[in-house]
Amino acid sequence: MPELPEVEAVKRGLDQSIVGKHVTAIEVMWSKIMRHDDIEAFKQSLIGQVCQRIDRRGKFLLIYFDTHVLLSHLRMEGKYFLCDKEQPVHKHTHVILELDNQEELRYHDVRKFGRMELLEIGQEFQHPSLTKLGPEPTQATFSPHVIKEYLSGRTTAIKNILLDQRMVAGIGNIYADEILFDAYVHPEMSAAEITDEEIQQLYYSIISIMQAAIKAGGSTIRSYANMFGEAGHYQAYHQVYGKDGEHCSRCGTIIEKTKVGGRGTHFCPNCQRKRGA
DNA sequence: CACTCACCCTGTGCGC
DNA sequence: TGCGCACAGGGTGAGT
Coiled coil located at which positions (predicted)? Predict the structure, then answer.
């Protein structure tokens, strides 16, 4: 389940492994990965182009070529691998970009949830998936004030707001739970009931958890690995995600698991109190 | 507009 | 050992 820190690690891997290389051929084995009806047109647009740079917005990867940009979302289990042409193709490999020097960039996705779409450069800024995104957590335009504005008048649970990419981009289920624990906020707290003090704390927790996770190369829970097949290390710092039944590191209370907005949610019932009704 | 929920997928892990 | 089923979850789109 790549979230911002994991996608950032993939981005850095792509930076090192495919920038400057050119696409000689393309194979698409599972066409639903591609948001295009016309796979041939997709191939024709990309073949022959050189990869110029890699960018990331929230959990989206932007792989820039000469005239087009490949917008890619890994969703739950999407992965990119660079490998030699001779290596056997895994059954969950769905797209192959053949590169120079007998190399291939392979997209692998067990659950086939990931999506990619080729756009003409410039179009990406009008793409609905990207225009809807809020600021990056580390961007100066993200501030406690932005959070406050976003929460006012909303009745939904604070966790749903963190998962909503419009306020701030890149938080997924794991980091939402970790952030709320760090900020001493109950995941089901109604957005409008969050105090200014808690908003301030949430702001700091969002930034510090995301930065620490990026530094650790993300979290590996089930299957996440970077371009080089390496696991992330941030899972060693998880305080609540996947810790239900274990003791809270701060107070010893048993961590509970529940569902919020249909997502598995982990929290400490003592550190994260629900106020009011 | 705000909110909820089904959908897309397959491997894993549980209960029996 | 094996079968059936709930579960995992991000974004999208339909429905209320």
Answer: none
